[in-house]
Amino acid sequence: MPSSAVISDREFVLPPYGRRIILSSVSSDSHTWNLVHLQLLLEEWGHEVHNLGACVPDDLVLRECRGHRPDLVVISSVNGHGFLDGRRLITRLRREPDLVQLPVVIGGKLGTDGAAGGAHGPALRAAGFTAVFEGDAAIEEFRAYLRRAPAPAQGRPTAVAPSGPHALAVAAV
Ligand code: B12
């Protein structure tokens, strides 16, 4: 299947090293092996993962974002409701002034057409996701996304992008 990653040109910056990541599913999705697999991959790539698990209510995601102050939020869904649940979640999250610039990506089987999906990127990005990963190349593209970043100017960059023009920036791990 061709690439279907849709990555925002919004002003988000990720710190260029092992990041603090919140991993979560959406409220309706009870699948767990997707989360286990993603956690293992992310940890193997050098990141610290706080896995919220399956069937996570929107309120809890927002609360954890505030309490945990992640560099990145990764939403995974495979039950077919990821598009609707994800759009509702990100709309809610982007309404919060303190979370408006937090990088949040989503991936998996986001519609009811299973692995044949891949058309949800533009709408989910328009709703506020930083990047959307669907299809066979999702993991590969996600890894490439995590690796892209300029060298840090100095010190630990903030989780929230500072104001001013800069492209999506993620570093090699
Ligand atoms: C096991 C399973 C279940 C188990 C889950 C048990 C558990 N504890 O996880 C049970 C029986 C509970 C279940 C229930 C349902 N399931 Co189910 N399930 C599966 C099955 C067979 C395997 C899923 C799995 O574990 N895969 C292994 C993991 C490692 O792979 P993965 O899930 O694909 O995740 C990978 C990628 O998707 C990707 N990815 C996922 N998220 C993200 C995020 C990012 C950022 C990136 C980059 C990549 C990424 O990377 C992951 C790791 O490689 C799949 C079919 C299949 N072969 O995939 C159906 C499947 C996911 N289920 C499906 C459905 C429809 C359901 C039900 C709605 C059925 C029903 N009518 O009740 C319910 C939903 C329940 C709910 N509330 O969510 C459909 C979804 C259809 C769709 N999206 O178009 C599938 C695809 C089956 C099918 N072909 O129809 N299911």
Protein topology:
Layout: E1 6-7, E2 20-24, H1 33-44, E3 48-51, H2 58-68, E4 72-77, H3 82-94, E5 104-108, H4 121-127, E6 131-134, H5 138-147
Parallel strand pairs: 2-3, 2-4, 4-5, 5-6
Antiparallel strand pairs: 1-6
Bound molecules: cobalamin (B12).
Domain B12-binding: 18-153
Pfam families: B12-binding
Protein name: B12-binding domain-containing protein
Bound molecules: cobalamin
- Low-confidence residue ranges: 150-173
Give the fraction of residues assigned to helices. Answer: 25-40%
Distance between the termini: 27 Å
**Gyration radius, rounded:** 15 Å
Give the overall average pLDDT. 82
What would CATH call the class?
Answer: Alpha Beta
Portion in beta strands:
15-25%
Full CATH superfamily name: Cobalamin-binding domain
Number of helices: 5
- Total individual domains: 1
Verbal overview:
With 173 residues, the chain is an alpha/beta fold. The protein has one domain (25-147): 3-Layer(aba) Sandwich (Rossmann fold). It is 31% helix and 15% strand. It has a six-stranded mixed sheet, with helices on both faces. β2, α1 and β3 (48-51) form a beta-alpha-beta unit. The chain starts with 5 loop residues before the first strand and ends in a 26-residue tail after the last helix. The relative contact order is 0.25. Mean pLDDT is 82; it is low at 150-173. Cobalamin is lined by residues 28-34, 37-38, 74, 76, 78-80, 105, 107-109, 112-114, 133, 138-139, 142. This is B12-binding domain-containing protein. Residues 18-153 form the B12-binding domain.
